[in-house]
């Protein structure tokens, strides 16, 4: 009978450990010797070529923990579910939580913007990158950039440019027009089926009059298509990007914040940013 109890306990422990909703603690990550980085190819955070700002950052974090780094590719529609173990979809500022799914990683790092609906299901690290949603068109567009004054006035002026345009956006990302107050304005949303890195090329190919881009992607577009990018103005207040963690894993989040604080103090993080986003210092000189 005692032997049966031991076997039953072992079976139950195995089920809990490998169940779809299981989240590894910091101690378990250290014991198992690997940190799983969930990432979506996006701008210069995750290039898809084995490097990027987020890839280098989390690889260094894994090294600081004394474990092996493992990249786990995912998509914008699944990345949060792959971390939390539950299907999650946005509905405005609210997160709709659905069925249980397998947990595939320990943290999210790929230029993840801190948004109200995401804060309901994730805890975020200290901010690692500044961002803002910009309205962007091709250089040959008849739309003209606003004259910057202050954030509130600039956003209102940019919203007026939306009248009657076809606006390219991407669902399940921070570039979904439905997430913002300007969603009620007089324009037509065209939802893009490709990845975020392809939004601006789609505008150049005539799929829409303009698109939403956040700061990192706009900086990449300017460098890849010099002379072809027209930044019209901002459509959101300044936001922050951060690393995402499960809410029941505060120890891992704190370990990252401690590691990140030291990386900033040493100047190493600034050099990593300069490697992948050299132009960001022209726009946000005080952030880093």
UniProtKB/TrEMBL annotation:
Residues 37-280 form the Solute-binding protein family 3/N-terminal domain. InterPro entries: Solute-binding_3/MltF_N. The keyword Lipid metabolism does not apply. The keyword Signal applies. Keywords: Signal. PANTHER family: ARGININE-BINDING EXTRACELLULAR PROTEIN ARTP (PTHR35936:SF17), MEMBRANE-BOUND LYTIC MUREIN TRANSGLYCOSYLASE F (PTHR35936). This is Amino acid ABC transporter substrate-binding protein, PAAT family. It comes from Desulfuromonas thiophila.
């Amino acid at each position: 009978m005692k032997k049966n109890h031991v076997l039953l306990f072992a079976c139950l422990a195995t089920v809990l450990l490998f169940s779809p909703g299981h989240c590894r603690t910091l101690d378990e990550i250290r014991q198992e010797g690997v940190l799983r980085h969930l990432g979506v190819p996006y701008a210069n955070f995750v290039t898809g070529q084995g490097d990027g700002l987020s890839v280098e950052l989390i690889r260094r974090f894994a090294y600081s923990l004394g474990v092996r780094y493992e990249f786990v590719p995912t998509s914008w529609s699944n990345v949060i579910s792959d971390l939390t173990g539950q299907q999650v979809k946005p509905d405005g500022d609210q997160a709709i939580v659905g069925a249980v799914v397998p947990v595939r990683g320990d943290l999210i790092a790929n230029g993840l913007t801190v948004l109200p609906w995401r804060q309901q299901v994730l805890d975020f690290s200290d901010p690692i990158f500044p961002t803002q949603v910009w309205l962007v068109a091709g250089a040959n567009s008849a739309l003209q950039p606003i004259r910057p004054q202050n954030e509130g006035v600039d956003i209102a002026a940019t919203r007026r440019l939306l009248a009657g345009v076809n606006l390219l956006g991407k669902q399940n990302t921070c570039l979904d027009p439905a997430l913002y107050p300007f969603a009620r304005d007089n324009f037509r949303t065209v939802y893009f089926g490709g990845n975020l890195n392809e939004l601006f090329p789609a505008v150049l190919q005539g799929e829409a009059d303009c698109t939403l881009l956040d700061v990192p992607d706009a900086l990449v577009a300017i460098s890849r298509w010099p002379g072809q990018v027209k930044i019209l103005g901002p459509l959101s207040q300044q936001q922050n990007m951060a690393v995402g963690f499960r809410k029941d894993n505060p120890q891992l989040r704190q370990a990252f914040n401690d590691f990140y604080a030291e990386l900033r103090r040493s100047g190493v993080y600034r050099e990593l940013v300069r490697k992948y986003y050299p132009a960001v210092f022209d726009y946000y000189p005080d952030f880093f």
